[in-house]
Model the fold of this input.
Amino acid sequence: MFSLSTTPISSELLTESLQNEKAGAIVVFHGWVRDHNEGKKVKSLEYQIYKELALKEGKRILEEAKKKFNLHGIMAVHREGHLALGEIAIWIGATSSHRDDAFKATRYVIDEIKYRLPVWKKEHYLHEKPEWVFCKDHHHHVHFSEKEFYSKQSALVNQDKLKNAKVLVVGAGGLGCPVLLSLAGAGVGHITIVDHDVVSLSNLHRQSLYSVNLVGEKKAIASSKKIQELNPFIHVEGISERVKLEHLQHDLMIDCTDNLETKYFLHDLCHKLRLPLISSSVYQNEGQIRTFIPGEGCLRCQSEVTPDDSLLGNCNDFGVIGAVTNTLGSLQASEAIKFLSTGENSTTTHTFYLNVADLSIMKVKNFKKEGCKTCAGEVQLEEHKVEVSGGMEILDIRNLTDEEVMALKPHNVALCCHRGIRSKKLAMKLQEEGHEVYSLKGGVSSL
Ligand SMILES: [Zn+2]
Done:
């Protein structure tokens, strides 16, 4: 009933498809691309549409029209992409027994489409620069001037530097959502979002970019659409994968992940590739933020050992409040904006700790150990894809010695021990020898 089209609309074919002998009338509405708007000469139009939402909302509008008015049939098509003068931008057809219903229904549908569909219109003018326009209704157009968009912050930041910055945000969850909203609003010109997870119902209380209708959707894609909708002047890309080397062509990485193993992996990766990193983590009511400039002190300066995730847990195990992750995410974004704007911020020299329960803060000076290999960029990346959560054949190694497991040369299985620590070490060893062997995360206690 409702559709989007990238190719020209044929009114004849659509009218024919609504043919119905019971109907006494058909009313067809065409919205055309005209050659002027608000005193400016228009030469062409461009529509950018948030497809998934537009299709859902469009369908809903037509269903409402069908209920409200006594219709036999109703159909609407909205164009997307670049349109020339005179082309049909919106086509609506309604059939009814009596003409009045069909007239009223087309009027209702066009007004609702204009008001409710997430459609951006870019007008290309004959003599002026193109402009994005959001058409709320026939006399209410919101013009988007880039300068006006940033007018309330431009005294505080270097807008050009932000516009030219390329930022990689890893994790579009509790920290990622506020970070992405703030970066997009501030006008960071290129934002890449990497997250391989999908939206679940238990995310919604804190991850403000998502709503119930997005449950099951890929977070990287859903969040990128949302922030693109917020700011049409920036470039946003969503990648629904784990972080790979080819993703790292950026000026800054922002780590918004929620487990230690990934955090250390990203930390080491950034030091190896000399990429500045702003990392934040939250544990119940407490959070911390630190900016790492490669060569100027790192986590391995304190201890070379990666702490085990199972010793600490994450928000899945201990709970988390949206206000806490939103606060930390906003501060993390603020650190990023300062850093991109001026090249410095306060968490390059100090790690910032916040306890939201009693509103206490602490700043601890970062330190650099002489001769730290990670700081020097000599980083051995730890194997990251050694753990699985199930869905594989399992080899129980609790009653086997390390030597016995190695001698078995297992293939295409997940090793399982008590807590998933010995199995992980052995799986890494076997992977180095070329065997496809994994470790069951958490060991038998996770089964
Ligand atoms: Zn170091």
Remarks:
- The chain has a mean pLDDT of 89.
- The pocket of zinc ion is lined by residues 297-298, 300-301, 369, 372, 374-375 (CB under 6 Å).
- The CA atoms of residues 249 and 348 lie 21 Å apart.
- Residues 322-342 form the longest helix (21 residues).
